[in-house]
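ok so I'm stuck.
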Amino acid sequence: MDSKKSNLCLSADVTSTAELLELAEELGTSIVLLKTHADIIDDFGEATIKGLTDIARREKFLLFEDRKFGDIGSNFSLINPRNSYVRYTCAIVHAKA
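replied:
not stuck anymore, here's the structure
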C-alpha cells in the first residue's frame, strides 16, 4: 500500500480465466488486492492460478479468494457446480511488496 500509495481493491466477478487475467494485467499496477470468485470461473484451473500468481508477483498485489457456499443473488447464480477443481483445491498466494 505504501509503495503504490493506494488502498484500491478490485472485486473481479468474471466468468473466464481470460477475463480475469486481462483485468489483472490492466489494473495490476493500481491495485493492492484482487478478490476473486474462483467458483464462477468456468475454466478455472492450474493456468488460472499460475497466470494470477505471475501477475500478482510482478505487479505486487495480493490475491484473495472469496469462497463461500452462499453469496448475493447475482454471484450465487453464477456458481458452476461442475467446477470440482475449486472445491478440492485451495491456493493462497502472497506477493512480496
